[in-house]
Amino acid sequence: MTEATWQWDETLYAGSARHYSVGRMPYPPSLADAIGTALDLDGSGRLLDVGCGPGSLTLLVAPLFEAAVGVDADPDMLVEGRRRADDIGANNVEWRHLRAEALPADLGTFRVATFAQSFHWMDRPLVARRVREMLTPDGAWVHVGASTHRGPSDDETLPYPRPPWREINDLVASYLGPVRRAGQGLLPTGTPSGEQEIMREAGFTGPTRLEVGGGMVVERSVDEITSAVFSLSSSAPHLFADRLPAFEADLRGVLTSAARDGLFAERRREIAVVIWRP
């Protein structure tokens, strides 16, 4: 697809923020350790987390810095991020409501900029150029990629059934149509690729690649899988409009029938870390 095919709008994740902490598997602590080791972080400098959502990565890596700024276009995500920060006593994080395209927004310079499952929603060439200008000479851009709403689909023995993702996707399609939804638009071929070319054209070198975690079996409840579905842009609550109660009832019916004692099991996916240097 070309980047002009789909246009961002503010409803992309409308209604999803409160489902993140329930439905998304958290990043493992080893992710922060790996980033800290790879970049020789010592508690100094500042972090910029772009498209921070509810702070899933921000709050994990903020202790590696003197200060952190989380930036997101969805105000509800920032409300959830502040709540989670208060819950754990994280007092070195500032939350800013703005689109990545509005950077630098007088935020200053940063030792590290992170993008966790967010860069593909942006005007990538523009954001890459602007963020590069915000990095210190020894700085780094860190892209974190993982499907934290679900595990891999390999056949293996697990202590509980896997969530019935195929049936879930079929149910979503029966309500929203066969083409993937995203905000007010459609993504018929998914999110765009070609990140390496964009980063190099913006003046970055690299990348260095790491893989972290993965393999651990986790138990997941019907409530958690329900929230996982609602945490996705392709099945965000607003997309169902007045059919939301009916969809949730049908979804919970599918999940309850497939679960054993109300539980599923999945393995955590490996977290891909891609580091670029300005």
UniProtKB/TrEMBL annotation:
Parts of the chain that traverse the membrane: none
Keywords recorded for this protein, A-Z: Methyltransferase, Transferase
InterPro entries: Diverse_substrate_MTase (IPR051052), Methyltransf_25 (IPR041698), SAM-dependent_MTases_sf (IPR029063)
Any GO MF annotation of the entry: methyltransferase activity
One Gene Ontology term from the biological process aspect of the record: methylation
Record keyword Disulfide bond present: no
Name of this protein: Methyltransferase domain-containing protein
Species this chain originates from: Micromonospora parathelypteridis
